[in-house]
Design brief:
mainly alpha, two-stranded antiparallel ribbon, 3 helices, binds zinc ion
Length: about 130
């Protein structure tokens, strides 16, 4: 059985020790100082990724709250006066925001920027309508 070298970071096995891990770029042949610098940077990157994931989750919750408020608003109006010509746009908007909340976990930047644009243009047009 051959002796293999295993990357301490990503557990990739090599028959011979490479200079750099092909998967995670761990510098096998570098000095101990450079190796610890690499590990430190990797740790920092992971922290940034975790923080970004938290921010995306927060944005997702905000989108769900906005969507939920719109749906609730529609339902309350409907229950108060079923014959009233209720604004179906509130329901649609609520559902769109809830949908963008789910979409934010796949394409966060796109989901958040589109829904923000939608919200701002809605405020803009409703301000125009009030005048
Ligand atoms: Zn590796």
């Amino acid at each position: 059985m051959e002796t293999t070298v295993v990357c301490t970071i990503c557990n990739t096995s090599y028959a011979l020790e490479p200079k750099v891990c092909s998967k995670c770029e761990y510098p096998f042949s570098a000095s101990e100082k450079d190796k610890s610098t690499f590990v430190g940077q990797l740790f920092r990157k992971k922290l940034i990724i975790e923080e970004t994931k938290d921010k995306i989750k927060r944005a997702q919750k905000i989108l769900w709250v906005i969507g939920g408020i719109n749906v609730l608003y529609f339902l309350v109006l409907l229950s108060l006066n079923p014959t009233l010509n209720v604004n179906v746009l509130d329901l649609l908007l609520g559902l769109v925001f809830i949908g963008f909340g789910f979409y934010a976990s796949k394409k966060p930047f796109r989901a958040i920027s589109i829904s923000l644009t939608l919200l701002l243009s809605l405020y803009f047009f409703s301000a125009l309508a009030i005048r």
